[in-house]
Each structure stands twice: as C-alpha cells, then as structure tokens.
Amino acid sequence: MTSKITPANILLPARMSLVTDAFANLEIAVLPFPFVQVVADFWRDIKQVLYPSNNKREVQPPYRQLNNALLACASTLTYGFESLDFDQERNLVLYQALAVGTLENPLKTPTPKQIHELIRIWAQEWTKQYRGKGKKDQVNSVCDRFLERIAVIPPDWEWQRIKPETLVRDINAQRGLGFQAIPSLLATMLHGKKCIIDSGQQEQEIQWRKVQGGGSGKVGLYVVSKPFKANYTDNNGKEREGYFAYRLDFNVETQAGRFNNNDNLEPWIFLHLSCQRYPHEPLLDGNYGRDISVLMGMNKAGLSDYEVDSTLVRLVIENNGKEKENLWRLQLPEPLASFKARALEQPENILNNPATLGNLNNSTKWGDRDEYYLIHVEGYGYEHEKHKRGHSIKTGFSFLERGDIIARVLEPLNGVLIPDNPMQCDIPTPSGKKVPLAMRDYEFISRPRKGWQLYQQIATDAIYRALQGKPMHIFLIYRKQDTCETVYQQLRDVFLLNENQDFPAHITVSKILIDNAKLLEKFNTDGLKPKDGSKFDRRMRDEHQAKRDLWRTFLQQSAIPLINFETAPHCLAIIEIGRIKTKGVLPQQNIKGAIREACVREGISSQMIQPVQPKPSEKEDDEDKSPAYSKQTIGRVMNAVLDGTLRQIGALYGLPSQVYEQAKIPKEIAQDLDVIAFCRRKTSQNQGDIHYALAVRLRATGAVDVLLPDANDWIPYTQAGIAAGKIFAEARRDRQENKKRLQSKIKLSGTELVQFAARVLTKHLDRPTIVLIEAEGWRNGRGEDNDGKIWPQLQNENLLAKRNVLDFCHVPGNTCEYKRDNKQLQNLLAVIRIRTGKETPQYITNREAWNEDYPARDFQHLSSFYDKSAPELLHYFSVGRLPKTQKAQDEMPIPELYKLGFQEDKYGANISFKHQQMVEMVPFFVHPDFQTEEALKALCRVPHYLRCSPAWSMGNIILP
Question: Which one, of 830, 916, 921, lies nearest residue 867 by Cα?
Fold first, then answer.
C-alpha cells in the first residue's frame, strides 16, 4: 500500500446486475394469510359492540405480535405475514409469509398445520383483551364466533413455490415480491460463508450470518459478521474497548429507463455496508420514545418439531416512557407462553448484562443457549466505572475497508452478481477565484484579508438583497449576560464589523432581558406521566397554551413597542430558552414550540439558543478578566446566528445568475432563470401526523419567494415562515381521532399534493424555469387517496415513456396530458427528478474494479458524474465534498485504516468514517433547446452547484 494518496475523479458505484439464471436452483415459497376476511369481520363486529356511537374508533389487528411470535419460534422464515397488497374489491389488506432456500441452506418451512396452531392461539390471546368489557354477552358472542372460524384450517392452504428467475425477469411480478425475496436469497447464499480481508497488518476472517428484519425494507434478510472486539487508546490516553460487526444489506433498486429484454425494469442490487455496534456495558439511557432493538439467536428449537438455524431474529423492547419497566413490544412473552415456546430472556437482564447474554467473544463453548445482542444507536449511554459514556467504537469504515469487503463478498457470489462500471466524470466544479459568490459561505467571506471592506459590503448586500429592500429588526432576548454578550458579538461578526463600526442602517438590534423566570420554566406535568394517556396529553396542551400566552404578553410589552411599523421590517428574535435536555425532564415538557408559536402570532421569526457558559477560570487572578468561551461554544452560537440572519431569509452572497453561467447555461437565459423546488414534510401520527408541501422559487437576482398550497400568489421567503407558522399554529385545533388529523390544512391528501404541483407547473411560471422535485413522496403515497397515486409519472417504470409530457390525466382540474409544445409551458426548461438515501448506491473512489488494490480518498470538492446505463435518459449524480468536521478522515494514515487497524498513534476504531452520499438527478420534459447531452448536463449542474448554503461552512447540503 502506498503512503501517499493522489486524488482521482473515479467513482465506482456499489451496484450490481443480476445474472438472469443465477437463482435457477434456489427456492422461494410464500404462504398467504387465509383469515383476512375473518379478522376483518371480527374487527368490524367488535367495534360495533364496544363502540356503537364511534364508528371511527380504531381496533387494529395485532399482526405485528403474530409475526414477532412466529419468527421467535421459526427462525427459518424470511418474514411472517407482512402486508402484501390491497384488495380493492373486498376492501382488505392482504398478508403473506415468505421463506427462501439455497443448495447449502435449503428451504425449511413450518407446516401450515403448525402455523395454524400458532394463529389459533394468537387469536385467543387477542380476544382476551375484550372479554369482560361492554355488554359481556354480546362481546363474548363476537369473540366466540371469531375463534370458531379461526379454528377451521382452510382446505388447500399450502406453501406456494415460486421460481426465482421469474422475479429476476420481472421485478414487479407477484406484487413486487422480488424486492424482498431477491435480497433474502442473496443473504441466504452468503449465510455461513467465510471471507478474509487483509489490512496489511493482519488478516481478519469474516463469517456471515443471516438476520431477520431489515433487508430491503422493514422485512427481509441481511447479513452480519461475527462480533469483533477492538481495543485502542483514545485521544486522551485512556484505554477503550468495544464490539462491532460488519453489516451488509442487499437492496433491490431500479433505474428510470433501464429495461431488460422483456421490457421490464432491470433490477440493480445495491450492496450497503455499515458498522453494527454491540454494547457490552449496562445501558443507562436509551433514546426517549424510541424502541430498543435486540438480535436473538436460537441454538435449539423454541418449539418441538420446528426447524432451527443460526439466523438472528430482530426483536424490540419498548422504551416509550409509558411504563417504569422495559417490556417486550406487543407483550411478546404472552403469546409465546401460550404457544408453550421457550420463554424469552427478561428485557431488563439484557439491558443490564449485554456482555453475558450475547456471545460477543465467539466462544465455542456457548452451547445451545439463546444469544441476545443489543444494537447500539447514537444517543445511548452506558455505565462505565460509575460514569456514563457512549459506545467506544466509532461508526463507519474507510473507503479502503469498504472496497476490500465488497471485493471479497463478490467472490462467493461470482456468477450471480455482475459489478457495474465506473461512472463518467463531468466537468470540475468551479474552484479558486472562479467560484461565484453565490456558492461562497460565511467562512470564506469572514477570512482575514486585505480589502476586507469589500467583503463587509458583500455581507451587507446579501442580507439587504434577501430582504428585498426591507429593514430588519433583531431582538436579542436573553436571561444570562454571557449569552447576551456572546450572541451580540456573533451578530456583529456576521456583518464583519470592526470595533468602532455600527450595524448597517437597515439593521436594528435590541436587547431584551427575560426578567420573569416563569417564561423559561418547563411545562408542569402535575405528576402525570405519558402512561396516563389522554390526561397527560391534555395537561401538555394546557401548559402549551398557557406558556404561549405568557410569551405573547411578554413580547407585546417588551418587543412590539420597539418596532417601527412604518418601515415594515422583518423581525427576528434570537431567544435564550434554557437547556433542552435536562435529566428528569420529559421531551413533552419542552417549551420551544410554545415560544415559537407566540413569536409567529406576533409576526416575529425566531431562533432558539441554549445558555452560554464561559470557560472556568484557571487562576484566581483571572476573575477580573473578561470571560472566555470555548471554541465549541462560539461555534454553536455562530451557527444559530447565521441560521437566523442568513438561512431563514434565503440569503446568498452573490447573484444566482453567476452560478447558472458557470453551469454553462446560456447567458441570456441565466440572467433571467428561475429555479423552483418543491419541499415536502411528512411525519407519523406520533410525531404530529403532518403531510405538508410548499414551493420555493429562487430568481436570478437572488430574490427568494414561496408559494403555499392554499395561496394564489408567491410571497417573499421572509414572510413565508410566519405565514406557514400561523397555519401550523391554527392546526393545533384540528379534530383528531387516535392521533390522526381530520380535514387538516397541514395534512394534504395525495390528490391535493399533485394538484398543487400541477398548478405551479402550469400557472405560476413567468420566466425560464427549472423545476426540482423529489421522487420520494411525490410519485406515490401508500395509504393515500386516489389509489395511492400522487404523480405516477415520476416512477421509474413510467418516466422514459412519458419523458416528453406532463401527465396530469388523473388530477382533478387538469385531467390532461400536457405536450412539450404547449404554449402554457414555454417557460419550463425542464423538470428534474431527485433521488437520495437508499435509492442511490454507496461507492468507492479511485478504483475501476473492486479487486484493484488502490488507495482511495473522499472528494475534496463538490463532484459530479453521469451514467449511461439508460442512454435515453441522463442520470446525473452529485457528490458533496468531504465536510470539515471529517477533515481528519483525509489525513494520513487514516484513509488506510481498517476498523481493527492502527498506524502510528491512530486507531481505526477511534475514527468516525462518514462518506458523502450520492444525489441522483434525472431531467425530463426538457425544452427542445436543451435536449443535447451537454445541455442536459448544464441543466443538472444548476441544482448540483446550488448544494451550498452561506450559513453552513462545514460542507455541502444534501438538497439545493
């Protein structure tokens, strides 16, 4: 291995093609759940008996409990009865179990008779919660009828065999079964296999093991290695140790326009390597409200007559704050006890003794005991020498280790997977003096240099331009003097002011002391806990309202009188709110939301900040000196100030038109170009049940405007935060049932989302425009109205065929397909679909093949590549530069370290390796003037170059 790394603009994606007949001798079997109608009838009848006046009351069948119990007994299954599809005629969700087998790990399925017995016992457990409630005779009658129907095993109910090659030929066959079955087959093929990686210092033997519950989604299989123990000396000279495993996921993805000879989408197999860490010390703090995952391995059958293998099964311990003790999720021990299966270990024992309940040291004398491995998640704290600390092993792997492992994995899968070729590199991103000011950040603008007055003017002009000529009034609302002084100084630094300079004429700063301690008190629970359910929730709502009103009164008395309403300034409050995380205080007691709502209702934008603490004095005679603050504290405060003064108003240090010209957009178009991006936010019921979207427009002049879904006109970005905030504040009054919002302005249906997109594209473009939209959440919406359709044109199977139209045939108010020559769309240069996350592959640099022994490093600049796998559509990939927080990752010898390796005084286990993910951009509905390959790349360079923010100096943002 060479000691010097030279950067090369080569990107090799970790995606593979499948050999068509690679699975010819393998097995796939599915078993439909035969009682969906029986369960639905019971669900309907029990609701009518128990809740006759509330037809919308939820009574959810506990399928997850059944599946967890089933897998705890039968680890040879790939997954239990998971949702498969929706039967429109019967209005029922269909469920199906899956099992796969290879020559070395053959198919082992419980018989339908065995599974039926478990289903029957599960149904009995389910009905127990209803007996004794309401009108007992009616309830018992409904329960008895249900159990009688469940007790009859359906005729001809058998495992159904499916040829794997049919799923390779058509990935959407069998209702998309291949998306789970193919990764599970690959994991099963790798199960038990060994490979050797060599860091140059030592060889490591990796033996792979299947894991249930993760694969290409929430279900399926992935593989992990045996645990490895790492010892090292940390940066403070302390000895550390910890355990980790290599985790490898196989994910099936498709690519727009990439079809096989059967005119079906040809699947890619993404290989995703990650570091799975296991704790060996007692868990003191989990993440509040987040369940705890445990892997269980059975070394003898949980039930007699059931097959068992060494597959690990993912189980979940509840950690929702509703109980004092941790429990298995969905009361898993009860059905297992009814099954007469071997009992699970008590959750508390696992959390307190992870070192003894998991075979972390790979002992050959473990015997037939069950294994339990607690999975570490960021934020967990463990007991160590009467103190709390996090996990000792840092996350991620170097490019070198990633490349070595994938190369070794491909060896046993030779003849099954065909590695992809390197992607082609686009032109370099502007660097040095060629970088437009609109791509610069605060760190560059604030550097000490001659002629600093020029950059001071640039900083002032950027904010003035973003405010569209309006003044700005900043309220510094504080409790502690240290916070006030530190924030005030960082505000001055934003404008690059020297000691004797005042703020620019259009900027006013007012300091306001929080003189009432009650303003900062956490919500009072009055002794209630989350387990008290609706009483606790009602108490928190009342506390929120009281705190909001208290802050409104404070603002009306202290801040509002200082505003010059004749100039209509943009108002920003930077507010010290106290510590967000405090021991013994629940997250629901956080007052930030109430303060933010108070500000919104008074027309003031807000930025919260936690208290500032000076560094302790080292000497007694230091008491008379000015307080000093740590670099981390100054950085935290500056980030908050930049967020409020730059990001919240949409400021850029230069004109976007200069960026567009650098992207090779013709000058006459660049100087008038708009870029519109659709932004969408969706949360679960437990996080507010929100589904909202808006459109943001960046003009060539730097002006930023927003269009809200229920508005007819664009409004300045500075006004949009207040407008949207008021909509969300009013939504606190939404009627809800079981935490589901009903007819809410902040929960848009699929139809409302696509109507909004269609309206923006067809009625709100008055200049040459590029439109950006994410595929995720816009192409379809599970559980939404309109048969789950939002904008199906964005789906991979449809985009090529419809690349020259806008298909809104299914959209009320449009119901048509817009052609490219439609005069209404003359200004639309292109729509660019964006994909991120697991829909884009991992990669390695500086290698053209996985088995090449070349050094690798992260990209030092924003880089871009394009792919010709589907030649009729340009697939453009953007990769961010190495963040400054990861700069040590690029310093020798760290790029050459394996997790168990060390050189000099550097240990791989002490390095957090984080590599930038790829962002895919695919232009469609392209204007005739931009349909050449070079013009298409120019269009994609626009959002690629816009992956920067003046308020964020650490690296590139994911989305423009």
Answer: 921
Instruction: Tokens for 748, please give them.
Output: 């848009």
Tokens describing residue 374: 């607690």
C-alpha count within 13 angstroms, C-beta hemisphere, residue 539: 17
pLDDT at 41: 94
Give yes or no for a contact between 894 and 396, defined as CB atoms under 8 angstroms apart.
no
Residue 903: burial class (beta carbons within 10 Å; 0-12, 13-18, 19+):
middle
User: Letter for the amino acid at 871?
Assistant: P
CA distance 933 to 941: 12
Spatial contact of 878 and 919, defined as CB atoms under 8 Å apart: yes
**Which residue shows structure tokens 């994938």?**
406
Sole residue written with tokens 């004095």? 617
- Residue 374 CA to residue 298 CA, distance in Å, equals 15
Q: Provide CB contacts within 8 A for 349, sequence distance 6+.
A: 357
How many Cβ atoms are within 10 Å of 293's Cβ, its own excluded?
A: 17
Please write the tens of the pLDDT for every residue from 501-517. 999 999 999 999 999 99
Question: Residue 326: what pLDDT?
Answer: 67
Q: Report how far residue 475's alpha carbon sits from residue 720's, in angstroms, rounded to the nearest whole number.
A: 19
The pTM score is: 0.93
| pLDDT at residue 3 tops 50 | no
Higher pLDDT, 112 or 236: 112
CA distance 314 to 335: 17
The pLDDT, as a whole number, for residue 67 is 87
Q: How far is the C-alpha of 423 from the C-alpha of 835, rounded, in Å?
A: 17
CA gap 70, 291 in Å, rounded: 20
Phi, psi torsion values for 770, nearest 5 degrees: -110, 130
Q: 839 is written with which tokens?
A: 């829909």
The answer to whether the CB of 603 falls within 8 A of the CB of 718 is: no
Is the pLDDT at 324 greater than 60? The verdict is no
Give the contacts of 170 (CB within 8 A, at least 6 positions apart): 178, 262, 264
SS3 416: coil
208-233 pLDDT tens trace: 999 987 644 457 899 999 999 999 98
Beta carbons within 10 angstroms of residue 384's beta carbon:
14
User: Does residue 205 sit in helix, strand or coil?
Assistant: strand
